[in-house]
Amino acid sequence: MFQASFTSPVFYGGTVASGWPTPSDGYIAEEAERSMSNSLAQFKLADELGYDWVGLTEHHFGPFALTPNPTVFAGAMTQVIKRAKIALLGSLVPMLNPVRVAEEVAMLDTMSNGRIVAGMLRGTPNEAVTYNTNPAESRARFEEALLLIREAWTQPRPFGWQGRFFEFRAISIWPRPVQQPHPPIFMSGSSPESAVFAGRNRVSLGLAVTTLPLATEAARRYRAAANEAGWTPTPENILYRLGFHVADSDEQAAADFEASHARRQRGSPVLANQALEATIAGTGYYGADHERQSGRVRGHHELADRLELGQVMLGSAATVLAQAERIRRQLGAGIFDVIPAFELGDRTLHSIELFASKVLPQLRDSVLV
Amino acid sequence: MVALAASSTDARAVAAISPQLGEFALIGQSSGAAAALALARATGESCAALILIAPVLGPLPAAAAAPDMPILLLLGTEDARVPPSAADALCAALPRAHPILIYGAGHALDRERIEAVAAVMCDFIARRDKFIVRDASDLLYP
Which of B101, B122, B128 has the most A C-beta neighbours within 10 Å, making it the best mutation to test the interface with A? Predict the structure, then answer.
């Protein structure tokens, strides 16, 4: 059983313009700097408290996360995070140069002495606009890029790649990854297509921005595809991401959480431009299970629903432990990628501490059945 | 330049006509690769380039006995018989070989991804070692 702490330098400052791509009205350089420092402090604390991973994300053109290139931030993290693994969750490989991603991750793996987890994602639908890639081709580009990156890490001699979307005549990356044969790869597997691809290709599965029932179904599909391909995933191959906030009492946690939401003006990058999301959904971006996958990212808003659907853990340590145990039993996930309520300053730090001291040890000791 | 496909049955015929061809490229696929290799060695300099497609070779020849010419090695990423992981040993045995992985193709990679295979082969035959340098323009609007 591993635990991951995920955070992100969200832009906290003042009122900013809405929409996506977000204009820079209201942008304050000092606030961006403070946001990045806060994130780094949260990561360092998580490392010191014994979280197994710290994870960060890639988002573009908005205040949701100031890490358009998470490998740059991860480079700084390799110098201050002494023990925990550093998880890129993840690089948006369909819109990047896959050889460059392979090189950057191998660099980070060397700088961290083999502590990198290589998440690879397609990005939120709107983000296809970022580098002018066709969202209708996002999935096919993703699959090719992932397999090319793995080949770049493992082929010992120079080789070329004649793909559908990518063409390279000679690849031979330096430095090489420390972890052999390569750093662990996680991909998002909420849609049927993704879960089956991950299972067939021995890639670990990440389930985020989803609900416990949908994630459970995706994990079942993943295990079936893996079994067909001749291997059996362990709980450590399945990551589940959800929000959390722990306080000294259930009442305090609820009050904190409400305050956190009141301060959060940003919403999600997907919903910041709903017309754009609809346009991209119309290209077939979500795949065969369109309705549910599109609905999944729209989310639920009532706290009681979010608790029931396993999207958030909230309360005292004892309450959160019970919530975590329920989710783990149902899903069989070995990795919880937990997102703190970022905006609460000292209370965020207290929550990260309580989770580490009073929830993680019990979760580690309990056996997943 | 003429490109000739070699197989074990036509190797002798190719050898017989090769002196009239001047410079030529040889192509050997799957179990035809052994014949193409033998022929490339036998014809020496007139064989200007060798292309091995998913080559199924028995014991690999010693590197010292490898033909001394540019060799393009094409392997399908979905080929269970000659997988991409075979590239290392093949290149050790054929020091001038350069592997290109044909994404999404199995053992019959020339049929499964005909455009991709044709494009890289044509480029290699035309430019040989120099084919790793891109010469197609990336200019969007002249």
Answer: B101
